[in-house]
Prior knowledge:
By secondary structure, this protein is α/β, with parallel strands linked by helices. A seven-stranded mixed sheet has the order 5-4-16-15-14-6-7. Helix 3 (109-122) runs parallel beside helix 20 and helix 8 crosses helix 12. The mean pLDDT is 95. The chain binds iron/sulfur cluster. Iron/sulfur cluster binds at residues 10, 12-13, 15-17, 43-44, 46-47, 177-178.
Amino acid sequence: MALDAIETTCVYCGCGCGLYLHVEDNRIIAVTPSMKPPASGRLCAKGWLLHGFVNHPERLREPLIRRGDRHVPTSWSEALSFIARSFDEIKRDSGPDALAVLTSAKATNEENYLLMKLCRAALGSNNIDNVARLCHAPTLFALGSSLGSGSMTNPIESLLHSDVIMIIGSNTTEQHPAVALHVMEARRKGARIIVVDPRITQMAEIADLHLQLRPGTDIALLNAILNIVIQEGMIDEEFIRSRTEGFDDIRDHLAEYSPEVAERICGVPAELIHDAAVMYGGAEAAAIVYAMGITQHAYGTDNVQAIVNLALATGNLGRDGSGIYPLRGHQNVQGACDMGALPDYYTGYQRVSEFREKFEDAWKVELPASRGRTAIEIMSSAGSEIRGLYISGENPALSYPDSSRIRGALESLDLLVVSDIFPTETTRMADVILPVASFAEKYGTVTSTERRVQLIRKAIDPPGSALPEWVVAARLLEIFGVSSDYNSPADVMKEIAALTPSYGGISHERLERGGIHWPCPTQEHRGTPVLYRDGFPRGRAVFRHVDQRSLDDERFTLIIGRSQYHFHTGSMTRRVCILEREVPEAFVDMNPKDAAALGIRNGTGLILESESGTIRARARLSDNVREGVLFMPFHFRESPVNLLTKWQLDQFSKIPALKIVSVRVRREDA
Length: 670
Ligand code: SF4
């Protein structure tokens, strides 16, 4: 008997690999890769095992409502009426700004759009945000304000045309394997690779140059590289003159960043910094790939701006093989932002302050003008100004900084609604838990890290009475009396396209033939894989000077990251037995010299302490981290590493400093 093979898109990282789900009797029994890019016949371990969690017995199957300290089953109509009634009461007592919504980067564009509409048109609040606040908000701010669009400038395949690729703050082979495969292919064709990373990653091992800098010193390094590029006469003067502004303002400041000064700050030999500058500056087409090693800092926006300055000065934008590649960690983090799940923008980055009337006309309601709160601002106001919160498919109790403070914030709400596919640390605190369909059980679109809008297709039915979240949001809109006449996600996309210039030519019908890179303004337009070929939307791109900040002076700097076998807070991957077998628990990578000094061996139980909290985990001795540096993944509830992180925000993008934290370490038995 032939199996059904349903073509869809991977739910994990932002690469957006296409794949087939093979189905028998409403169960997915195998996964195979699509031959279309970026998968091109390949998947990573998580992708091959994607079906492992979908049919898991712990899936949420029916709505649950809190009665005392228990959650008991209820009907959809009772759950939704209770939510609407409770939101209404809070709104009556405290005003609409007491309500907030956090959407999910695992939900579709249509779901993010409807939740955004729910927050603004039904609840009357601009307090809406999504997980991008914790990963790429600095990208949105720095690339958006300097270049015109806060997104990846070139498609992944464009890396095959690069002759130099600089990878900074990205463990690409483990976290964005489809991108890493393109980097390897470019290398086979002759491209040279520079890796800037405090750890010896797999990519660092095969790189032509590895700059193993001290954590948090990227600006000193990037400024020194640009300074050398200028001194060596490797800037693109015509590009700077005709397409940019502000270069003269930064040139003088950069002179302070000699390679020797950078060596003292970063711990990278001046000679190596010089070699990297000459390699990048001398390339015909050079790309910079980065991820959360750059963004998740209290100076994340400045870090991204330092990258922008380097690319602009060398004219490495608007051409195949050049470009800036911010790699998104979740399947649809790009789409969640595109859909206006942000406090200050509607869809397609149309500012609330400029486009309110347009959306009022379309939705036929009065919309709020007040400034919305970001994710961490929502949490910091929980229990006081914020009283009711809807969280779609996220687990802030584990993934947000200073977890004990986050848990206190969630507990102090009058109403917490959480939708998810599994019980999590956050659903445990909810007043209402809504069981929603997984990616394999619904239709819709997602937008990958390369701005490619793609279809996901339903392969099987959801368990129990679980519903696609677009249906849940549409029903809530209907209860609140806001237009919600949708028969399918394709109808929702029609509304998105009508209101969003960059998605104007996107429809489900067109996407049946393959993904499209936005901007795609009309049905006839073929999409825009490479941005800025003919200029920048804001006229001229902008250089801005950024300075290295001083760093904390504790004995150890802990870097917080990920394992290739797990995703985010592990709610999906830790339920896939092979992935869980590979990495079943948290670990702390420590340099053997540090370990010897403290009497620590492989497997020794450690206590890590910061200003915010204390956790336990086992040591794993590794030469991949330099002395004074530790590394730990954040997927494990048993060693919740975000108990250690602080609510320290980047002043521009409001991202919290999730990447590094100063800690003290001791043996558990000491
Ligand atoms: S690289 Fe990312 S999108 Fe591709 S299969 Fe792996 S997790 Fe999925």
